[in-house]
Fold this sequence. Notes:
Layout lengths: L4 H10 L1 E4 L5 H15 L6 E3 L6 E5 L6 H6 L3 H11 L3 E9 L9 E4 L1 H9 L6 E7 L11 E2 L12 E3 L7 E3 L2 H11 L11 E5 L4 E3 L10 E8 L32 H6 L1
The structure holds succinic acid and manganese (II) ion.
The site of manganese (II) ion has 3 residues, from loops.
Amino acid sequence: MQLNEAQLEQFDREGYLFLPDLFEAEEVDLLNREAHRIFAMDREEVFREKDGKTARTAFAAQNYNETFRRLGRHPRLLDPVRQLLDGDVYMHQFKVNAKAAFNGDVWQWHQDYGTWSRDDQMPEPRAMNIALFVDDVTEFNGALMFIPRSHKGGVINAGHDLKTTSYPLWTIDDDTITRLVDEGGIIAPKGKAGSVVLFHSNLVHGSPSNMSPFDRTIVYLSLCHIDNHIRRFKRPEWVAHRDFTPLENLDDDCLRTIENAAAE
Ligand code: SIN
Ligand code: MN
């Protein structure tokens, strides 16, 4: 799958691109089932909300679950990112974010490259996210919010927030957010499960808590150009990966053939 000129231009200008309905119901149902199986596991990679029970983020599921291993090599996700980053990519981080009904907590405003640069010494913002909705995302269930064009200003000053949620994050102060929103507004891509959103690693984003009765599971592949791999190994390997091998595509139907593979 290749992005067209208009899509490339929109990504460069706005910092994100929304691709509705890229995966089919059968594929998404499988991912949804597997995500909940992982959330129920007692593993260090599965972070909980402050209640100590509700799953918040499952890291590195591509390393211990066959369905997510395949998703991490899916051509519909990897090809557009290789095109935008202009070359081979490796997996810097892989997250299944639950944002569970009633209990899914806020993600404060931040830039992902802010963390990758400060914590992991990734040399340049030559890395980005591609996110797949595994539930419908609506105005009610804690949609991801972007400040369009905020990726154009480089890394913004941030404070290390260790208090708000169960997850440490380099977050941006209210005055800066007010200024950026004056300039770019806020948008929240919404759509059906199976939709995909790509966003620049310097795009400022966050999400409110989920007080609806609807889960909002989203899978994030954070992909980095192989020349731009991280230089510092401060965070656990399952948070910031250290395998810089270029990812190779599986076939486009790799999520459909999985039951057959499991039976072999
Ligand atoms: C993130 O920014 O890393 C996660 C935000 C979300 O899933 O709402
Ligand atoms: Mn983020």
